[in-house]
Amino acid sequence: MLRRFALLVGTISALALPGVHARADNADAKLLEAVRAADLRVAAIGWRLATANVPLCDQMEAGMGVVVHTLDQFDPKARDSARAHFGFATPVAIEGVIAGSPAERAGLRPDDSLVRVGPVEIAKLAGRPGTTDRLVAAQLGIAALPQDAPIEIDVIRAGAPVHVAVQPVPACRTRFELELDGGFGASADGAMVQIGSGFLDDYPDDQLAAVIAHEFAHNILRHRERLEARGVDYGLLAGFGANVKYFRQTEVQADLLSAYLLANAKYPVRASVAFWQHFGPSKAGGILRSRSHPAWRDRVATLEAEATKIDALSTRPLVPALIADRNKPLDGDWQSILVRR
Ligand SMILES: [Zn+2]
């Protein structure tokens, strides 16, 4: 889980706001609200993908549609401002509630501080000070709750105890997180998808969804685990030797699956094509070309060809054949699944 370092030091170019020159506390409030909005934007896209693609997942959780955060995430210098702004009557609070989610229907609200979520006593979670231990423990505890029974929740809202019961919906088990670095990194480790905040500035929601869907596809296809089973090198040697064929196979598979994930969640299937036509020339061409990934123009051709196949299919959700292969070892065959321009 991410730490919000340097939050109030003004280095977050992606979230720097024009006209922030009023009193310091007012500036802090604007920045904290910008962070909340950015986190919610990513979480809402993740939620839409994770709930619309349940038939493609084999690891599920009880989906409530809340985004939680902790005071421990904030830089020590920012903690007083964060506490003053968000409340934090307990170590973990609701940063936001996704529109149309079970949490919203049950009446949960942003800045409700979590006391208890089902059997998980949030206020009693232990963790090392200054780490996100308690937040991670809360997220793992909530994710492990049964998916078909109401979840009884106690919160503190504006100083008073409030009780609600949330009827969850099944969701694929992946956490979607924003990294507040202004960058264009994106990664998937099997449990989590992380994307850099640079994408939020430069791309509309549909194309952000395409980036997130690609990373989410890596998790659904167990790519981290399967690459590790092949003994690949994630470091400087990723672009050399046998590593290349395994990385490329997972990259092409993630592109292919991302088209179905977008279609099932009713995003435009060609959002990823539009994304690459902008991102490719600026960030993945010439000397920026990665040896472990196929060339971006071939990725566009592959995505376009898959979108054309999806156009001909009217049923939803679509469950592509590569889902059935996710428990097989990677064979390194990327050549036969890549369409060249
Ligand atoms: Zn990838």
TrEMBL record:
Which coenzyme or cofactor does it need? Zn(2+)
Q: Which GO CC annotations does the UniProt entry carry? A: membrane
Biological process according to GO = proteolysis involved in protein catabolic process
Residue ranges occupied by any Peptidase M48 domain in the UniProt entry: 185-228, 244-306
Q: Which UniProt keywords apply?
A: Hydrolase, Metal-binding, Metalloprotease, Protease, Signal, Zinc
Does the keyword Protease feature in the UniProt annotation?
yes
Q: How is the cofactor bound?
A: Binds 1 zinc ion per subunit.
Question: Is the keyword Signal assigned to this protein?
Answer: yes
Where does the signal sequence lie? 1-22
InterPro entries for this protein:
Mito/Outer_Membr_Metalloprot, PDZ_sf, Peptidase_M48
- Molecular function as annotated in GO: metal ion binding; metalloendopeptidase activity
Q: Which family does it belong to?
A: Belongs to the peptidase M48 family.
What is this protein's record name?
Membrane-associated protease RseP (Regulator of RpoE activity)
Organism the protein comes from: Sphingomonas kyeonggiensis
